[in-house]
Amino acid sequence: AGIIKNGVPCVVGKQAAEALVEIQRVAKEKNAPLFVYGKDWHIGEIQPALMGEHQKHNAAMAIACIKQLPQLNITDAQIAEGLQKTVWPARLQKITEGKLCDLLPQDAELWLDGGHNADAGKVLAEWSATGKKLHVICGMMHTKDIAGFLKPLAPHIAQLYAVNIENEKNAAPASAVFNAAKELNIEAVDASDFKTALKQMPAGARILICGSLYLAGKILSEN
C-alpha cells in the first residue's frame, strides 16, 4: 500500500484478504483507481516461456499493467512474442548444455532456481508435483530460514545433497542444510560441493539446484 500514489492507477495482484483491505483503504484515501486480480483482471489462457504456475500470474499481471498504459501502444502480438521470448536465469531454468551437464548420468535433467524462502519453497513444490521426485542440491545463506524453505519441498524430494557455497562468508555450512533436512525426514547427504553432488546422481534423475542466488550465480559461472 505504501507505493500507491495520488490519482495513479494501481494494478493489484493476488493478495491475502487483510492485505487487500489495507490496499483498498489507502487507494481510496489517495483517489487511486485499483485494478484487482480476480475482479478487474484474470490470468486467462496464457503460456509464458518461464516455468511454473506462478509465472502465469506474473505474466498476467504485467499484461494488466500494459493495458493501463495505452500510450505505450503495445500490441497483443508483441505481448505474445514477449511472453515466449522471456528469459530469467536461475528461475526454474533448465540447463541443457555446458560443463556441468557433462557430469550428469544418462537421461538426467538439470534445473536451477535461486529461490531461498518459504514462498519459493511452495512455488517449487507446486512445480515439482508435476513430475517425478527430485534430487535436490541445496546450499543456503545462514540468514535464511532453511527449514522454512525445505518444508514445502520435503514430500517431493527423493534425496537432498547439502552443499557449501564457496567463498561466501554469510553462507550456511553444508552441515546446517543437512541437519535441517534430516529434521524434516528428508533423505540427505552432506556432499560438500555441487560438483561432488552432481557426480553422485543416479541415471534419469530430475535434479534441482536451489537455495540461494549466490549458489545459482556460481552454477551459471561454472557452467
Primary descriptors:
223 residues; alpha/beta; six-stranded mixed β-sheet; two-stranded parallel sheet; 8 helices; 37% helix; 16% strand
Structure description:
By secondary structure, the protein is of the alpha/beta class. It is built from eight helices and eight strands, in the order βαβααββαβαβαβαβα. Strands 3-4-8-5-6-7 form a six-stranded mixed β-sheet. The longest helix is centred in the first third of the chain and has 15 residues, at 53-67. The N and C termini lie far apart (41 Å).
Short précis:
The protein has 223 residues and is an alpha/beta fold. The chain contains eight helices and eight strands; from the N terminus they run βαβααββαβαβαβαβα.
Question: What is the topological layout?
Answer:
Blueprint: E1 10-12, H1 17-29, E2 34-36, H2 53-67, H3 76-85, E3 93-95, E4 109-112, H4 118-128, E5 134-138, H5 146-153, E6 157-163, H6 174-183, E7 188-192, H7 194-199, E8 206-210, H8 213-222
Parallel strand pairs: 1-2, 4-8, 5-6, 5-8, 6-7
Antiparallel strand pairs: 3-4
Helix pairs in contact: 4-5, 5-6
